[in-house]
């Protein structure tokens, strides 16, 4: 009985730490095309297949087009956010090539907690 409780407690600790790790803030700052990060900054094309580590990341295949809406800055500058159809998420900038720049000047803004949550069927969840 005690062994079963120990195993359950260990499982809960593992599940909790995985949840906390997947929802951690990836950067405190990001660069956008406007203060609200609503304007697309650029149109890029995937130069490699990419599958992210959790639901916060955008998965894509070589050749697909992605609209970029923000770029993390100061920390994790290699991560950009964008959309492909209805899918939205982070991806590494070296997995794409810029096809068209849509804004003239980038604005640096603080990230929000909701920047690092997953959106599933119009509901937020944690990675």
UniProtKB/TrEMBL annotation:
One of its GO terms (cellular component) is endoplasmic reticulum membrane. Residues 39-101 form the SH3 domain. Residues 1-22 form the signal peptide. It comes from the Eukaryota. Pfam families: SH3_2. Keywords: Coiled coil, Endoplasmic reticulum, Glycoprotein, Membrane, SH3 domain, Signal, Transmembrane, Transmembrane helix. PROSITE patterns: SH3 (PS50002). InterPro entries: cTAGE_MIA/OTOR, SH3-like_dom_sf, SH3_domain. It is found in: Endoplasmic reticulum membrane. It is a single-pass membrane protein. Belongs to the MIA/OTOR family. Plays a role in the transport of cargos that are too large to fit into COPII-coated vesicles and require specific mechanisms to be incorporated into membrane-bound carriers and exported from the endoplasmic reticulum. Plays a role in the secretion of lipoproteins, pre-chylomicrons and pre-VLDLs, by participating in their export from the endoplasmic reticulum. Thereby, may play a role in cholesterol and triglyceride homeostasis. Required for collagen VII (COL7A1) secretion by loading COL7A1 into transport carriers and recruiting PREB/SEC12 at the endoplasmic reticulum exit sites. Interacts with MIA3. Interacts with the COPII coat subunits SEC23A, SEC23B and maybe SEC24C. Interacts with PREB; recruits PREB to endoplasmic reticulum exit sites. Interacts with APOB. This is Melanoma inhibitory activity protein 2.
